[in-house]
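Example for tutorial group B:
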């Protein structure tokens, strides 16, 4: 469903949860690093990791995907938001289509110390 990714991003959390996430006070129970993976292997790793997190009763996952950075093939951006990488851009759809989508309560951007714009928190239901 195309509306589900926006639902995760806009899903309401207790104000204390949102504040703690925004300030970087929540320590993720698991970290999933998708750097260096192809789209297919990143998607598979995300699914396996979500299954493991649900099984372990994890509450907050940090999913690190990265984003395109300026370089010889990607010049700096002037006045525009930097484009997200393919894996990062695919995360909302993958989470919505996941076999574990019902276990996902919300997603939030990660604080800079946890990867900033190249990472997200996935908050799972109790």
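The residue assignment follows.
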């Amino acid at each position: 469903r195309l509306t589900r990714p926006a639902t995760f991003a806009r899903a309401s959390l207790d104000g204390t949860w949102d504040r703690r996430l925004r300030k970087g006070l929540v320590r993720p129970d698991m970290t999933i690093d998708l750097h260096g993976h192809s789209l297919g292997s990143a998607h598979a790793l995300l699914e396996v990791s979500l299954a493991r997190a649900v099984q372990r009763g994890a509450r907050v996952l940090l999913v690190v995907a990265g984003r395109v950075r300026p370089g010889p093939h990607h010049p700096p951006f002037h006045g525009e938001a930097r484009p997200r990488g393919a894996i990062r851009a695919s995360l909302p759809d993958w989470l919505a289509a996941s076999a574990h989508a019902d276990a996902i309560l919300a997603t939030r951007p990660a604080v800079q110390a946890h990867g900033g714009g190249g990472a997200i928190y996935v908050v799972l239901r109790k």
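Confidence is low (pLDDT under 50) at residues 1-6, 72-83. Compare this with the pattern of hydrophobic and polar residues in the output above.
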